[in-house]
């Protein structure tokens, strides 16, 4: 099995197709919507949650089975039906059109895998085994959930604001680099790991102001 190239894909307003209407398809639809994608679902039936999304026009739903026309103007495809031959056909047709396609529970038939992801706001930690052992990926994710709590997402948002300020106000590349390195150190991470979010935030802000004041 070939090695994969990990990326973080921007799906905001991108048209994505999910074929299938069961619980697995539901999870995929929700994850795509969370990233701002425009989701089209094709299936003879839907879970109650997907029916609710369709009734509220949160997704574009076509009742029926997969047709090649469903791929028109689509950026990314997820094959999530309960029929292997249908999923394989979807993948074949999508890849023939150079589309991104994931086959649920049978990833080698597509051209990308979906990793196990720990999300803490803008902080995302993805665990992949190149499709070899999703169970191992899930167990590692569960371990990381205990290590990295919601406070990491809060600090990342603060660091993002400061970084934006540095990039907008500091033109010297050397000074930028020094500032960016100064706002996060091992002690800040130790405070965060100990649950001292406010102290970690204070340390970041103080480090930023001290570095800005240096000639």
Please render the helix and strand layout as text.
Elements: E1 15-19, H1 23-34, E2 38-43, H2 48-55, E3 60-63, E4 76-79, H3 84-96, E5 100-103, E6 116-120, E7 123-127, H4 134-147, H5 150-169, H6 173-182, H7 186-193, H8 197-213
Parallel strand pairs: 1-2, 1-4, 2-3, 4-5
Antiparallel strand pairs: 6-7
Helix pairs in contact: 5-8, 6-8, 7-8
Helix count equals: 8
Overall pLDDT confidence: 93
Order of helices and strands: EHEHEEHEEEHHHHH
Would you count the extended β strands for me? 7
Report the CATH superfamily of the largest domain: NAD(P)-binding Rossmann-like Domain
Q: What structural class do the secondary elements suggest?
A: alpha/beta
**CATH T-level fold name of the largest domain:** Rossmann fold
Q: Order of strands side by side in the largest beta sheet?
A: 3-2-1-4-5
Strand content: 15-25%
Cα end-to-end separation: 53 Å
CATH architecture of the largest domain: 3-Layer(aba) Sandwich
Just give the CATH class of the largest domain.
Alpha Beta
Low-confidence runs of at least 5 consecutive residues:
none
| Rg (C-alpha, Å) | 22 Å
How would you describe the oligomerization state of the chains in this entry? single chain
Report the biggest beta sheet as strand number plus sense, adding barrel if it closes.
5 strands, parallel
Count of separate structural domains: 3
> Percentage of helical residues?
40-55%
Outline, from the CA principal axes?
elongated
Domain Sirohaem synthase dimerisation: 152-203
Protein name: precorrin-2 dehydrogenase
Enzyme class: oxidoreductase
Pathway: Porphyrin-containing compound metabolism; siroheme biosynthesis; sirohydrochlorin from precorrin-2: step 1/1
């Amino acid at each position: 099995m070939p090695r994969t190239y990990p990326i973080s894909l921007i799906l905001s307003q991108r048209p994505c197709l999910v074929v299938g209407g069961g619980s697995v398809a539901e999870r995929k639809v929700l994850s795509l919507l969370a990233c701002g994608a425009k989701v089209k679902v094709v299936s003879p039936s839907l879970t109650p949650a997907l029916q609710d999304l369709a009734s509220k026009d949160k997704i574009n739903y076509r009742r029926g089975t997969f047709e090649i026309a469903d791929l028109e103007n689509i950026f990314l495809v997820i094959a999530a039906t309960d029929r292997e031959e249908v999923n394989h056909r979807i993948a074949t047709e999508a890849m023939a059109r150079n589309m991104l396609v994931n086959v649920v529970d049978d990833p080698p038939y597509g051209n990308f895998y979906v990793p196990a992801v720990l999300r803490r706001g803008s902080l995302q930690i993805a665990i992949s085994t190149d499709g070899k052992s999703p169970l191992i990926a899930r167990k590692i994710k569960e371990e990381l959930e205990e290590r990295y709590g919601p406070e990491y997402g809060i600090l990342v948002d603060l660091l993002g604001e400061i970084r934006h300020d540095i990039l907008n106000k500091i033109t010297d590349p050397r000074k930028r680099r020094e500032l960016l390195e100064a706002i996060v150190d091992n002690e800040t991470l130790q405070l965060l790991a100990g649950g001292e979010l406010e102290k970690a935030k204070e340390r970041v802000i103080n480090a930023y102001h001290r570095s800005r004041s240096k000639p």
